[in-house]
Structures are given as structure tokens and as C-alpha cells.
Amino acid sequence: MDYAEQRKQKSRKTEERLIQAATQLMHERGFDAVSVRDICREAGVTTGAFYHHFSGKEAMLDRGYEQLDAYIRRRVEEQPSSRAVDVLQTIFLGYAAFLEQENGELTSRFYQNLLSSRSLDTFDRSRFIYDAVEKAIRRAVEQGDLTARYAPSYLASFCVRHFRGIAIDWAFHKYSYPLSEQMWEEFQFLRELLRPREGTVLDSTRSIPD
After folding, report:
1. How do residues 32-50 score in pLDDT, each as one tens digit?
2. CATH of the structural domain 63-193, one choice from 1.10.357, 1.10.10, 1.10.8, 1.10.4160
3. 3-class SS at 108?
4. Which end is more exposed in the chain, N or C (fewer Cβ atoms within 10 Å of the end residue's Cβ)?
5. Which residues contact 94 (CB under 8 A, 6 or more apart)?
6. Residues 144, 196: contact at Cβ < 8 Å?
7. Which candidate, 10, 3, 42, places its Cα nearest to that of 26?
């Protein structure tokens, strides 16, 4: 490994430590009660290193989706299944579990910041969640558990948008209902809705509903 690659890896690890430290502290104390100094102390880095990676606390929220994707990846790896619809359930229940354990306030802050910054990183189709959902949908169609009426890429985008909407609704209602239970109910509803129907003409190239 050359020197430039070593520096890149070191920089990535520093950034990961900062995000993990910030997430933990904000979960314990709340967003407003945590300072940049607190985050640096917890991560074991200087404030200069912090500002090399982030312009401030709010900027860190834009990267929260990376922690979410990493958590969901672990859940999928820890709960393998031969049925792709079960993998999809693991993904979306993992989505809910992450938000619940990382504190509702952070969820609210994340979406507030997303709207104000207009960053599109969280909607990047190369993210793990999009890729994992689309692959699972393709397999579920092949296994006969989901309809082939719509293109898997369309269904993947639809599902991620739908479950993101549930998370926003949960934050809007001040976390007054169990997100995991609601996510499970919504997933079962969509699973039934997208089940293949007898007599349906299958067309996997179709990308939008009539």
C-alpha cells in the first residue's frame, strides 16, 4: 500500500470515529447538549481534525445515512435467509430499529437538516440500502413471492421512499408510536399488495404503474 492510500484510510477511520462518537453522545444527551469539543474528546482527535472533515455538527447529520447502511448490512449478514422477501423484511425492520435505538431526536434533526441543506447524498442510488433492496426484490420475483409487473428498480425506489416516509411521520408525531411495529405492519401490507395474482400478465420491463 502506497503512502497516499495509507493517508486515505487513516482519514476515513478518523471520520468514522467522529461520526460514531457524535452519534453516541447525541443519543445520550441530545443534539443541542453536545459540543464539537465533546465529540473530539470522545473520538480522541483534535478540533482541527474535526473541522478538516466537517464544517460543524449539522454537517455530520448529512452523513448519518452511512451509519444506517452499515447497521442494516450487519443485520442482513447476521440473519441470512433463502427467501428474498424475508431479507427485505430484515432490511426494513433494521431501518426502524436503527432509528429507534439512535434516538428520535436525531431522526428529526436529520430530516430537518436534509430539507435545509438540500443534500442529495442520502438519495444516492449506489447506497447499500438501494442496492440490497433491489437485489432482494429481483430474487423475490424469481422465487415467485413478488409480482413481476413492475421493474425491480422501480419497486426498490418506491419501497425506500415509502419506509422513509414512515420514519418522517414517526418523527412528526413526536415518536408517539412504536416505529418497528408500524414498519412491520406496513411491510406486510406491501408484501400482500405486491404478491403475484393469478392471471396477471408479467412484464419485468415496466417501470411505472398504470
Report:
1. 889 999 999 999 999 999 9
2. 1.10.357
3. helix
4. C
5. 71, 72, 75, 76
6. yes
7. 42
Block residue for cell numbers 438519495: 123
Which range is least confidently modeled, 45-59, 81-95, 182-196? Answer: 45-59
DSSP assignment letter at 149: S
The identity of residue 54, as a single letter, is: F
For the chain, how many residues are written? 210
pLDDT tens digits for 134-143?
999 999 999 9
Residue 146 DSSP symbol: S
pLDDT of residue 117: 57
Q: Residue 183 in contact with residue 92, Cβ under 8 Å?
A: yes
> What is the pTM for the complete model shown?
0.73
Name residue, grid cell 471520520.
Answer: 15
Q: How far, in Å, CA of 150 to CA of 155, rounded?
A: 7
For domain 3-60, the CATH architecture is Orthogonal Bundle (1.10)
Contacting residues for 89 by C-beta, under 8 A, at least 6 apart: 184, 187, 191
Which residue ranges make up each domain of the chain? 3-60, 63-193
- Spatial distance between the Cα atoms of 115 and 163, rounded to a whole number of angstroms: 17
Work out the pLDDT band at 187, boundaries 50, 70, 90: very high
123-162 per-position pLDDT tens digit: 567 788 889 999 999 999 999 999 999 999 999 999 998 9
The answer to whether 155 and 204 are in contact (CB under 8 A) is no
